């Protein structure tokens, strides 16, 4: 492929929600657009009831088993979950439907998110809520309260899921200023990476000093602004090296580097290997 495909939720639904329940033995999705590595412009949540499966996301294989909750953020590169031996739920949600407090939890970690393991009561509650949501989702959408009902039930699931992760991560929904800045910086970084690589630019967009932004990020993550910019540039480059046919020079230019030699030196500095060597190693 020349670049990494982006799947749009509006191509599946005009309602901002795509919901389905899958079971062991269901026909396997054979659409190559789904099977190949891709990004989504929306959140995806998985609730695994029983069985086991796995998911490759940004070069990490995530193992999922019965009684687990997991989510994928917009733009993270992944392949279809291998769920032939699982029962569970798939929930695709437009980002605009995710309450801001929930986004603070889901997007608050600069590192890859971890699966959350339910206790028996939590799994029972989630299954009941999702079953009701699916039942209402499949009803007649001519009902004037259809959208209100669906969105209320969806919001209940999202806030419950965020609550689980909030407690799991030891965070607090009364977000501190450093934590709030970290979340805002992460969102900006994804959106602005190709055009802005200067810590000062991000500080300016967030209306804080560069020193304060770095101090906030260090407090929450242990690393300054420059580190995370380099990490995001490198991760995006890895995605393009592995999943696309673009040359190193083309990748450098697509990431906003006018000097592809500088990009190559940065990649080697961060990863310890050249871009070409990385592509050859991972495509063996």
From TrEMBL:
Residue ranges annotated for the HTH araC/xylS-type domain, each copy included: 183-281
UniProt entry keywords in alphabetical sequence: DNA-binding, Transcription, Transcription regulation
Database matches in InterPro entries: AraC-bd, Homeodomain-like_sf, HTH-like, HTH_AraC, RmlC-like_jellyroll
Name of this protein: AraC-like DNA-binding protein
């Amino acid at each position: 492929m020349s670049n990494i495909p982006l799947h749009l939720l509006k191509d599946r639904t005009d309602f901002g929600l795509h919901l389905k329940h899958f079971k062991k033995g269901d026909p396997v999705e054979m659409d190559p657009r789904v099977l190949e590595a891709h990004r989504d412009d929306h959140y995806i949540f998985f609730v695994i009831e029983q069985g086991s499966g796995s998911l490759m996301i940004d070069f990490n294989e995530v193992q999922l088993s019965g009684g687990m909750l997991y989510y994928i953020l917009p733009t993270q590169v992944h392949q279809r979950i291998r769920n032939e031996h699982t029962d569970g739920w798939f929930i695709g949600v437009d980002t605009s439907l995710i309450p801001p407090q929930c986004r603070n939890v889901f997007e608050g970690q600069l590192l890859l998110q971890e699966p959350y393991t339910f206790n028996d009561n939590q799994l029972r509650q989630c299954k009941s809520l999702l079953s009701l949501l699916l039942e209402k989702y499949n009803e007649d959408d001519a009902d004037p309260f259809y959208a209100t009902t669906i969105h209320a039930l969806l919001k209940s699931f999202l806030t419950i899921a965020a609550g689980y992760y909030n407690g799991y991560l030891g965070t607090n929904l009364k977000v501190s200023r450093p934590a709030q800045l970290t979340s805002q910086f992460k969102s900006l970084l994804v959106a602005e990476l190709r055009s802005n690589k200067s810590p000062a630019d991000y500080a300016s967009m967030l209306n804080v000093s560069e020193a304060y932004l770095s101090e906030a990020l260090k407090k929450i993550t242990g690393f300054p602004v420059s580190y995370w910019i380099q990490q995001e540039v490198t991760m995006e480059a890895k995605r393009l090296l592995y999943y696309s046919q673009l040359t190193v020079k083309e990748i450098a230019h697509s990431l906003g580097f006018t000097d592809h030699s500088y990009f190559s030196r940065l990649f080697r500095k961060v990863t310890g290997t050249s871009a070409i060597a990385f592509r050859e190693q991972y495509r063996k």
